[in-house]
Amino acid sequence: MASSTVMRRVSLRNLRAHKLRLFLTVFSIVLGTSFVAGSIVFTSTISKAFNDIFDSAAPGVAVEITPDSNQSPGVPLTVVDDLTAQKQELGIDKIVANYTGSVTIAGSDGKALQTGGAPSVGTAYLPPDQSLSPDSSKILPGGRGPTNAGEVALNSSAADEAGLQVGSTTQLVVGQGSAQPREVTVVGLLDLPGSTGGYVNVQFDEATARSLFSDGQHVAQVDMSAVDGVTPEELQQRVQAALPPDTYEVRTGDQVRQDQKDQVNEFLTIFTAILLAFAAIGLIVGTFIIYNTFSMIVAQRNRELALLRAVGASRRQVSRSVLFEAFVVGVIGGLVGLAVGIGLAALLKALTTSASGLPDAPLQIGVWAVLAALFVGIVVTMISAWVPAVRASRVPPVEAMRAGMAEGSAPLVRRTVVGAVVGVISLVAIVAGAMGVGVGPAIAVGAGAAGAIAAVVLAGPALSRPVVGALGSVLGAPFGRIGRLARTNAVRNPRRTAATAFALTLGLMLVAVIGTLGTSFKGTVNEAVDSGMTAEFIVAGSNQMPIPGAVADQVEQVDGVAASVSFGIIQATADGQQVAGYGAVGGQPADVAVLDMRDGASDQLPADGMFVSERTSIDKGWQRGDVVTFTGPTGQEVPVTVSGVYADNEALQPWLVGPDVYDQLVPASAQVSAMIFVAPEPGVSAETLRTNLEDATASYLTVQVQDRTQFKSSVSSQIDQMLATLYAMLGLALLIAVLGIINTLALSVVERKREIGMLRAVGMLRAQVRRSIYLESVLIAIFGAILGVLLGTVIGVALVRTLAKWGLGTPVVPWTLIVITLVASAVVGVLAALWPAVRAARTRPLEAIVEA
């Protein structure tokens, strides 16, 4: 017991005596804990914000009625009338028919207000005496509720974004079938509880809302409140008994709010999983940094630990003293990492709430965040320190004192052989998955990727010697002896070099995987446009909105148009499953796109027929001559004969029906198009046709005219936006890797203090010392980058091939990204070495030799 106490005191004094080393060790732990804690705090905060919003949703609603099927046009108004007549018997206080639909409103600049993906909906304004909850949406002072068709009330956050105020006149388009924008005047601003950035709510008077968002016979949902003494559950049972069975869904207000929470929490679960996946990446990177740090610290203390062994300390006591130090710095690092993680979560919250419209809420620092930070800080640190501790305890005292501060180097043969075997097996799994061999190609690629990472960990030290040696011979040649010294320093401890480089390898591997997927997606789009379309222009909706059906008629009448085909959106049921496709209206698809028929006498789509792509034909089993029975939103069954099968064309996926089928499946009031393909008449220039199309569609807020290049660019920009988010998340892991290199080099400078002092004593200049550290860092960084890029590209190409059945085309290797990555790695190497190099250059020769 006494000896254990003595060893703990020695450990604590050692920590206090080497403050720089303590700081660098704690810093490495903070890198590994902050992202994990920050991810948990951030997702908990966003979850809390959404829960708070939905806690206030459906205010005053005791019971809500909605159609049992999403294909239904709504709840018949006759049902509302019947329930209204039975209010007293059922215990209903107030009953409200909710009319709602998508809208787009123009800002003060005359352009459509962009929502960033948030909903933009129109609803009916209810005066306080008619509303179920008079306080749910207040008109701000200075405004009033709309009373006629030309007036609207707008939520204040959207009004601020649009630059509108009470008295402003603007234009508005109703998303489903409105031919021309409506001119409206903003007469009131709404204070909506839980209104998030980007969300738009335009409220009309009830009569106007009914005409815009209803077919005159149905309503989207019916809300009601209960009289005093009747609970929501009792009212729910009474209303359900008064309605036809299995026709409508009757829920209490609490159930409505919980269902909305569940939908958001499903999204948040995915969102959390993505964040935690990146946190896991940061954790893995941080673990290697911690392991590297403790390996170097133990190596630096070989003499000290050997002296303890010489004066009677046992191997167990030596290893326990190292683990005790790991525990102390793990606690410190975990707590500091928690604090940094909270700051990181606050930064993420500030960025997301301002840029993406996510709701705001106070930071939620829960028990799980604290436990995660301490777990990572303590457990991961002690696990990382265990191998160096055992290694230190096994060094004989005399040998350790004779070896000085050099780290012992165990043979690499065994781990290299195991790594090579694992690498070969992993490569076979990746290739098999890419070729579609086996039950789950994606699973095979994923397992192969995990195995490849393990192989790099095992065989990395052996790989580092020849690769870094070769790089050093090339990059170090212009620097002469300084270059050779840097090369020697980089290869003499392969374990440390590989562990330091692995942090960068993992981050850049993921960058290469995502880059390959993104480039391949864009390549698929480009191929679909270049080889799948003959149309010169694409008329599409802005703000991710569909095009009103009337636009197709306008485009068809434009001078210079030889052919225009509107692809109307169809959502129906077939073979007991929800399916989605397009109705080709206004012309033949073969006039604006490449229709390579594989099974069909003609490429002319019959008005009452159907074409399916090869992929759909295989997946659904729909063959030429088969009859597919669709059930539309009104419940009407429409049998359609498959007239042909065409070669996969991403511009025409997954199936097309003629105009007669489209009219039967989609009510006129709900007919909207995804896009319109337009081909010019012979002799009509592209500039002339574009001008004519833009003039014809100028009054439509939601319509934009794009040529083929612009269309490809717009799709690519959307992909780039998604990739930018992923790259931003990966950037933090790469930052951790860079800081890890700084940490390792700084400790390496401490370890080599005597060596550097001797070099300075024999005439090495400070600039030469700095240059050697720079080159050493660059060699390590490029080694890690090469491994990461090679791994990531192979895995990315394999993943693209596994996604071919979902329409992803030929893999495209992001060569530009690869070149930029390799050059950036060299720059990162220099930047990471700045502080360690300056510290090394300041080493005083005599002090270093004496101190060592």
UniProtKB/TrEMBL annotation:
Residue ranges of domain ABC3 transporter permease C-terminal in the record: 277-397, 728-843
InterPro entries in the record: ABC3_permease_C, MacB_PCD, Macrolide_Exporter_MacB
Regions that span the bilayer: 267-291, 322-348, 368-391, 412-436, 442-463, 497-517, 726-750, 773-800, 812-835
Entry's Gene Ontology molecular function annotations: transmembrane transporter activity
Primary location: membrane
Region (Disordered): 119-151
Location in or out of the cell: Cell membrane
Membrane topology: Multi-pass membrane protein
GO CC, one annotated term: plasma membrane
Biased composition (Low complexity): 126-137
All copies of domain MacB-like periplasmic core, residue ranges: 23-241, 497-695
Family, similarity comment: Belongs to the ABC-4 integral membrane protein family.
Record-given protein name: FtsX-like permease family protein
Organism: Gordonia aquimaris
